[in-house]
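Q: Give me the 3D complex with flavin-adenine dinucleotide.
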Amino acid sequence: MVVLGAGFAGLAAAQGLAGLGVDVLLLDRHNYHLFTPLLYQVASALLDPSQIAHPVRATVRRRRSLRVRVATVRRVDLDHRLVETDRGPVAYDHLVVATGSTTDDFGVAGVDAHAQPLKELPDALALRNHLLSQVESAQWETDATRRRTRLTVAVVGGGPTGIEYAGALAELLRLVLAREFGHLDQREMRVLLLEAGDHLLGAFAPPLQRYAVDQLRRRGVEVRLGTRVTAVEGGRVRLHDGSEIEAGTVVWVAGVRVSPLPGLTGAGDAAGARGAVPVTATLQLPGRPEVLVIGDGAAVVQDGRPLPMIAPVAIQEGRHATRVIAAQLRGEEPPAFRYTDKGIMATIGRHDAVVEVGRWRLRGFPAWVTWLLLHLMLIISFRNRLLVLINWAVNYLFYDRPVRLIVRAGPDRDREAVEGPGPRG
Ligand SMILES: Cc1cc2nc3c(=O)[nH]c(=O)nc-3n(C[C@H](O)[C@H](O)[C@H](O)COP(=O)(O)OP(=O)(O)OC[C@H]3O[C@@H](n4cnc5c(N)ncnc54)[C@H](O)[C@@H]3O)c2cc1C
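A: Here is the predicted complex, encoded as structure tokens.
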């Protein structure tokens, strides 16, 4: 059995399948599992990468029948039941595809070249380096306009990642860096949150959406609703009304889309929402019962609505993949998948968050404690939980961001040895 992707969905599936005692091969292009909900804290200099990324081998080492290999998957050959990777072909009897999603630029010119994404671990490090470098450079800037541009960050996208990063950034600039860069004028440090729709946090109830706007504004974030970005250029974003904003850092967190692995879908197949692969109610590929697609990459419709691309959906689908394959191995009909919604939450900043579980809504300090405890519980490994807790406590008590380092990796001579030759994915 082969599982592609060691994210939330793939890891849950691989662990479940290994629990059945069958041989499982787990392939990922990275050797770590990334806890994306805290990625913005790496980008805002609060956490170290190793605290939110855990080696896959360490995570699964107790599962004897589970092997892990690092490889970039290039294509799936459904007819010959082969996965083509940069390391060579891999044969499968059952295949679980969980390769996730990528940043969606929505066709906006210049995003790729000039905006900073926040999807992968290297994105968060690049963003941290860029932002801290901008503040350092601003110290040398004698021209006031150029200095303000360097100190302006435009965050594009008012979903959970956008508000969490904007909130954390406002705190970093105003409460942490302002103390160390004494002669920079705080009024020149701007964080803008640009959202095309007329509210933030689309999945939340309107009172929580309004609360998030108010709280971000109180924290100094300039929230602009109904503001659609039409182009990103070096040092500025252009808006739908013809105006522009000078910003030395543009963070693009407007959404994600799926680029299905070549070979996975036929030319005539209609893609689901955001390019996701349509699957049956049992998460199988139509006409290919031996292939399951799960996580962000799968278009699953429940009660007439596509399921959101979030970690709980991915984890539940990963667990369900085990049930489907177990049923197949027993010669039984595979069960249909049903997602159990346990609620959504987002943090706005220091002791502030919003939580929604069914009709139950929470905001402010109690929501923040709920958010904090839940995320702490979900982080893989006791060591990381402890380190994250220490970093959070230091930040909370002393307004300190411990990882304010500008560190760029040197030439990666070993990369070929780990990732193999060929184009880089
Ligand atoms: C910044 C950010 C913050 C988020 N915050 C939250 C949150 O707070 N709560 C929440 O519920 N959801 C959150 N999400 C969404 C959540 O991360 C996704 O819904 C979830 O990760 C989907 O799980 P997945 O297993 O489908 O994909 P992923 O977790 O993305 O895993 C995909 C895996 O496949 C691997 N892979 C991809 N392509 C290849 C290839 N060609 N070859 C080999 N390996 C490959 C990747 O390396 C990765 O390990 C956030 C997402 C982001 C980007």
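A quick observation: The first strand starts at residue 2 and ends at 4.
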